[in-house]
Backbone:
């Protein structure tokens, strides 16, 4: 995933940096919006979304378990002309998401540039989380099988049991010297999509990934660093590269040489 692939399977990518809360973010928006516009993100919209909160408190004896609740959350979205790449700003985070991924270098530069704009105007104090997540679609052509693309370890019991196949799910979580890595593979029928918590907020998926319906797999790899440190803009790019390296290792361990040759 480090080099640009001719037939790249990546269809959605998001990077996020969480920083110290800014309760008066609204007051800084005019200056931020003007800088984002000059940085090729002229589209702008405010969104109010509902965040699901799942209570962890034990139920009262003889009573009902606590009900989940929704908390309103405001965010501002700065988009490009094509509406495929967006910078999402909230009171304590900034994210870059795209359905038109090119290379890690161009993606990280856009992320760091957007964060620099916010820092120049607000003067951020600390960073407490950096995250990077890739979604890749495995779409076998006629005469091919998912077994041609995915290694045995992530296929579970796919193709090994009788009956009508519904889905297979594999997840591996590791902690390494960089941070946490979550590697998932979902095999299912239907169209390529995104998890609800991502899909409802993401730009529209490239039609080439939605044209094919039927048996396919999604490779979902999420890497993150959770550590509170003073804000230093020069470190954000290097941390994203470290996370990308871990994601690339997981991606290469998931796919076969045939898949790599087909996509490169």
Residues:
């Amino acid at each position: 995933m480090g080099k640009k692939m001719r037939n790249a399977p990546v269809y959605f990518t998001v990077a996020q940096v969480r920083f110290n809360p800014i309760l008066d973010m609204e007051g800084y928006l005019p200056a931020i919006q003007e800088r984002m516009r000059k940085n090729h993100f002229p589209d702008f919209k405010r969104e109010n979304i509902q965040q699901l909160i799942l209570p962890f408190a034990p139920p009262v004896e003889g009573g009902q378990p606590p009900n989940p609740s929704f908390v309103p959350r405001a965010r501002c979205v700065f988009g490009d002309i094509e509406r495929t790449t967006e910078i999402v700003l909230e009171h304590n985070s900034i994210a870059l998401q795209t359905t038109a991924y090119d290379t890690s270098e161009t993606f990280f530069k856009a992320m760091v540039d957007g964060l620099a704009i916010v820092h120049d105007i607000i003067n951020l104090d600390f960073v407490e989380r950096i995250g990077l997540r890739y979604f890749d679609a495995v779409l076998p052509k006629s005469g091919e099988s998912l077994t041609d693309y995915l290694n045995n370890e992530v296929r579970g019991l796919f193709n090994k049991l009788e009956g009508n196949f519904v889905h297979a799910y594999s997840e591996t979580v590791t902690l390494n010297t960089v941070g946490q890595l979550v590697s998932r593979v979902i095999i299912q029928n239907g169209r390529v999509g995104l998890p609800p918590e991502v899909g409802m907020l993401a730009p529209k998926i490239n039609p080439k990934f939605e044209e094919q319906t039927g048996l396919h797999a999604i490779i979902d790899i999420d890497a993150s660093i959770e550590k509170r440190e003073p804000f230093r803009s020069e470190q954000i790019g290097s941390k994203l590269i470290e996370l990308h390296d871990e994601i690339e290792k997981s991606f290469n361990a998931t796919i076969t040489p045939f898949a790599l040759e087909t996509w490169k």
